[in-house]
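User: Hi! I'm working on a homework problem where we have to compare a predicted structure to a textbook description. Could you give me the structure for the chain below?
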Amino acid sequence: MAQEQKQPRLWGDKRYHTFNWHLRQTFGGKVFKVALDGGFTCPNRDGTFGDAGCIYCSGRGSGDFAGQAGTSLHEQFVQGRAMMQKKWPRAQYIAYFQAFSNTYAPLDRLKQVYEAGLAESGVVGLAIATRPDCLSPEVVDYLAELSRRTYLWLELGLQTIHRRTLDWIGRGHDEDQFLQAVQRLQRRDIRICAHLILGLPGESREDMLASAAAVAALPVQGVKYHLLHVLRGTRLAEEFLRRPFELLSREDYISLVTDILEITPPDKIILRLTGDGAPNDLLAPVWSRKKWEVLNAIDAELIRRNAWQGCRGRRSIDKEME
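Assistant: Happy to help. Predicted structure tokens:
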């Protein structure tokens, strides 16, 4: 007798817990992020820890798709919203402070920027990208207040759990600082999205799965998985052009992400499964330019395996962390 197949868990038409599905369940309709540049910097750029940034970070502090730096937040928001309204005229919005470290400023300045974002028409919440070492007690107090009165995500960069890689990419913090930040934010009921980069030089498939398993076991509400991009103007690009290193193939990335989804608890929201590299700056991998083809291929691989997010359960997470 043929073995009976298990019925997959679905979030809408997807086999993983998408951010789009979560937002529709929360707000009853389409919600977009509008990426903004709040005019911040980073301790890895202003000389506190270093002045060159992380090895992969672009000149815009990974905010290449944010609004134009130097223009007002209102102008940035209006321009970003206009692009979305063409397809979704009744959408609502999340003001997304993306470029550089968006809690790295005096509290009065943070309040000015965040409140301006919340005041824009149609905005239902905030997303704030930052580092685990840029969260002073008074900033966490304010974030807790924001979390009580609006829909808030704090996006926290980890990238990898492996110290040798963190040192090589020049993060300026370690996993312990990330864990401490998660604990402090969790105690204040602040939603956390952890960022991981897949394909960092020197990391094996097992290394990347171990990072994903470690994050899957944490009390964070969401995860973003990024494919490593080599962008012109970064120290990573200089290294790549001098001594080219191996990058993940499209097939390996799709297989790896599917493995990761299988060990990720189903309650964790997947805010991203791959990222965009600025087209004019992307040196490699060139296959990543076709983002939607990659996402469709991940869907197809989940179907081929008859797999879905969390289908391998907690024991698989513990095994990957051994």
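For your comparison, note the following. Residues 162 and 218 are 16 Å apart (CA to CA). The beta strands are 31-36, 92-97, 123-130, 151-159, 191-198, 222-227, 230-231, 269-272, 282-284. Good luck with the assignment!
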